[in-house]
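[Discussion] Sanity-checking designs against the backbone

I'm trying to build intuition for which residues belong where. Below is a structure token string of 566 positions. I'd appreciate it if someone posts a full sequence so I can compare it with mine line by line.
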């Protein structure tokens, strides 16, 4: 619950402090006095978007601070600690200070437990402490999507679990549908691509070139085309090294003569080193001479082989021209084409598989939809009964409220259901959608009945509710009924109501008045808690517009009636 609210430089409020206790607190005051700013301050503490225009004229910034009291074991305490905030604990209750600083220029800053936090974190933490309902929520409740959301909230974990299963099934169905659609759209292109890949692979495999084959054949052809010059060169080189009939002084003979001469030079380290090097040179030249002689011996003309090489080179050149790429690239492209053909696989088989997956996903989605509809139907029955039991207490004794859950025309992320809140405002009237069958005042009371039912189902005790002029369009006995029901809700929760109706304010344990004081160049708003005679005066003003004896008597009667009713 909120123990204290401090407001500084926000709108018409220069400085205000409001002590809030348990039970029902009524916030009243003249139109334009600044009640809206009081609500705005609470919304800022809950993470609402900050508007620099709301900073009081001439001030550098507006500051709103709230002191909250929550049970130590509350999950919100753990989240505050995780965010780095400090808390104070006493007698099982934790005290948390939340503040919002809104500069006239620049971005606002949020603080929890003395630690600066992003506004999103503030909204996540503080938003669970207070539930706010205003006049716009009446319109919200008339929208089908919001009615569905309210029902799902009331349904709790049973509906939430079924909704999660639905969302998973819905996602799987959409993915399967998209895959089949993409495949269908791409099937014609895939068929054309398959033909192109198959033609490329067939052409390459028909010639079947080897890596580097064309260059090797070119070298072999050059050797065969110049066989005589090759033999002459190889044999002449061999003769120059090892000797022949035409070579009198071969290189190896010169090395042998040099080795013989060194033997007469005596034994020394330098001579021995040179002798070793001559031995190595002799061995190397002897090996070269033998290889040259062997190559020369095998250098024979081979016209048949040369013809085969010419034919093969023509095949390779024809493939290169047909593909417009060199042969090594052609081999690489053929490998890629084979991989692509594997990916394409069996088009018809793939189509059948994707269609089967879609059918399976649809079946699972439909089953999940039925389970979600069953959970919602069960929740609708309970919520309808809970709201119906509230209506007589809200001066709607002859009204009938019902929630229908039917199958929608098309599935969506939220399910396959249409949720309708329906009302028959009097006996004999047919059930009709809430937006069409309820007046403004009736809609306010229906909304209150729904919110009370939701509160009792989904919130722990001691939760804080803020109702901002939800009694618009309500008067007389109905206003008393609204006040009485708010007081009943406040028996286990903290309830703050901003109201223009004395009938509602009379049921509050605490009444605070927003008073605007006009000065020469500005106006200042104060928030003052009123008791006894001051409260009678405020209720009289709300009833008659003036503090007359008749109005005060009526106000006293209201207070007495409210005390008896409580």
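Best answer:
Here's mine. Compare freely.
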């Amino acid at each position: 619950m909120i123990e204290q609210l401090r407001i500084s430089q926000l709108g018409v409020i220069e400085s205000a402090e409001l002590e809030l206790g348990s039970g029902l607190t009524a916030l009243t005051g003249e139109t334009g006095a600044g009640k809206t700013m009081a609500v705005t301050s609470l919304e800022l503490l809950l993470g609402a978007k900050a508007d620099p225009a709301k900073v009081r004229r001439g001030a550098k910034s507006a500051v709103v601070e709230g002191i909250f009291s929550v049970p130590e074991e509350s999950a919100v305490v753990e989240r505050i600690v995780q965010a780095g905030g400090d808390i104070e604990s006493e007698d099982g209750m934790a005290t948390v200070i939340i503040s919002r600083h809104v500069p006239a220029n620049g971005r606002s800053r949020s603080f929890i437990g003395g630690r600066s936090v992003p506004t999103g974190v503030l909204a996540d933490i503080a938003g669970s402490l207070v539930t706010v309902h205003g006049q716009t929520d009446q319109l919200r409740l008339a929208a089908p999507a919001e009615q569905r959301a309210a029902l799902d909230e009331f349904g709790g974990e049973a509906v939430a679990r079924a909704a999660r299963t639905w969302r998973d099934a819905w996602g799987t169905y959409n993915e399967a549908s998209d895959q089949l659609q993409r495949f269908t759209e791409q099937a014609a292109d895939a068929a054309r691509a398959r033909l192109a890949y198959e033609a490329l692979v067939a052409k390459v495999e028909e010639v079947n070139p080897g890596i580097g084959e064309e260059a090797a054949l070119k070298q072999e052809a050059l050797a065969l085309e110049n066989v005589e010059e090759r033999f002459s060169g190889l044999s002449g080189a061999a003769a120059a090294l090892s000797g022949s009939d035409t070579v009198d002084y071969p290189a190896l003979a010169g090395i042998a003569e040099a080795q013989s001469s060194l033997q007469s030079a005596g034994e020394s380290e330098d001579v021995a080193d040179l002798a070793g090097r001559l031995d190595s040179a002799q061995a190397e030249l002897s090996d070269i001479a033998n290889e040259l002689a062997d190559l020369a011996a095998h250098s024979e003309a081979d016209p048949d082989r040369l013809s085969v090489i010419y034919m093969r080179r023509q095949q390779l050149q024809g493939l290169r021209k047909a593909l417009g790429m060199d042969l090594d690239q052609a081999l690489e492209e053929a490998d890629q084409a084979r991989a692509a053909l594997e990916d394409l696989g069996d088009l018809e088989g793939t189509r059948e598989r994707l269609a089967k997956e879609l059918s399976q996903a649809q079946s699972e989605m439909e089953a999940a939809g039925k389970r979600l509809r069953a959970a919602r139907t069960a929740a609708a029955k309970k919520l309808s009964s809970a709201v119906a039991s509230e209506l007589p207490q809200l001066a709607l004794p002859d009204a009938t409220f019902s929630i229908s859950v039917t199958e929608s025309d098309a599935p969506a992320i939220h399910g396959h259901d249409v949720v309708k809140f329906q009302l028959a405002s009097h006996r004999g009237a047919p059930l009709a959608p809430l937006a069409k069958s309820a007046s403004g005042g009736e809609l306010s009371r229906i909304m209150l009945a729904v919110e009370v039912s939701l509160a009792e189902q989904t919130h722990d005790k001691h939760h804080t509710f803020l109702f901002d002029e939800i009694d618009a369009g309500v008067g007389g006995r109905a206003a008393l009924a609204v006040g009485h029901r708010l007081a009943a809700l406040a028996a286990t929760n903290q309830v703050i109501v901003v109201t223009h109706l004395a009938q509602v304010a009379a049921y509050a344990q605490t009444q605070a008045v927003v008073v605007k004081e006009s000065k020469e160049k500005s106006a200042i708003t104060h928030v003052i808690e009123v008791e006894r005679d001051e409260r009678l005066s405020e209720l009289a003003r709300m009833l008659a517009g003036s503090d007359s004896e008749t109005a005060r008597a009526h106000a006293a009667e209201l207070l007495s009636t409210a005390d008896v009713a409580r």
